Amino acid sequence: MTYTIHGRYESNFEPLADVFLQQLPKSPRKGGQALTVYHRGVPVVDIWSGVRDKAGTPWQADTMSISYSTTKGVLSTLAHMLVDEGVLSYDTPIARWWPEFAANGKHGITLRHVMTHESGLYHIRQMIQNAREMLDWPHMLEVIAAAKPYHAPGERVGYHALTYGWIVGGLIEKATGRPLAALLDEKLVQPLELDGCYIGVPDSELPRCAEVIGAARYNPNPKPPSKVAVWRQKLISNALALTGFDDTTSADALIPRGMSRFYLDEPESLQACIPGANGVFTARSLARIYAALANGGELDGVRLLSAQRLAEATRVHNRQRGDVVPMAMNWRLGYHRIFTTWPKTPHAFGHFGYGGSGAWADPSRDLAVAYTVNTGSGSPMGDLRIMRINTAVIQCVES
Length: 399
Hints:
The chain is of the alpha+beta class. It contains 12 helices and 11 strands. The chain has 2 domains: 210 residues, Beta-lactamase; 131 residues, Beta-lactamase (3-Layer(aba) Sandwich). Helices cover 32% and strands 12% of the residues. This is CubicO group peptidase (Beta-lactamase class C family).
């Protein structure tokens, strides 16, 4: 099987199309992906290739893929819109709208603390006993309301890998009195005419969802690691320890108990509300959201954010290395820095996700990029595939 690109791209983006194909697995029928790029407010690349499931079904124009933490950028955009409308405030304690949230010393935590990952509420492993609890939205809001911060707000930075969604999403529901999915549809999906953007997929849309291929599955009798693998892991852990990084803190934020038997890509999980990690999108929908942000907050006559709100939302708030992710993410309000192999992108912002997906905007280049993929590799912050694609996009724009 030879991979074929479907869709369209402008002629000066042909080098990008070549790089795009190179990111697919070498073995046939092992994965699929989609890429959409907006430049100066218009789509210049809208392509897809590969397969959407293990049976080898071709990836289609309307295929959606779970995009893990890429969801946080979409959720953050919705929160900024509500701040613009005066419904929310960055610096008012969350407990004003959600009184129960004040428990255990959280009375002073604000939306800004959460969106910059400075609230101290990231240790999900200490909050729940089993990952399946994450499927129960009302229960998780109670868990978050009762949780005790790991540190005082503003004192440190720790990536809220899973908790971000319940805090921000819960606040949105408490402040508006409306379901998160309904607000997402009203504020983003309908105005921008998005063709695939869900946090909680309805029954009718499940057939469009790509299957994650190559994701690790639980093995009750795993093969013992080799001596080389053990040595390598010990070397990495020791090197990180020398920098002051504690990998147990990272595990607390990223891996709740029972996660080895819990899969975010299964139908039950796709239909749940886990707004920090289970958004399902087309690349086209993600690109349209970020194209508006790249274009001063507006796209095709639809304004998402005021210029003032956009400037505040995308200003770098902290540059220090975090306790969970051992690198400086240069957190804005809900968005992080964008990684490329070259050139630098100091004005770009967005969010990447486990498995390699990501979406971002660069107002200085009037550029928006979105990439969805179903091959299940990578890290919580994406992987090298999206970095290579990002670099190729910029090179095509600037050539």
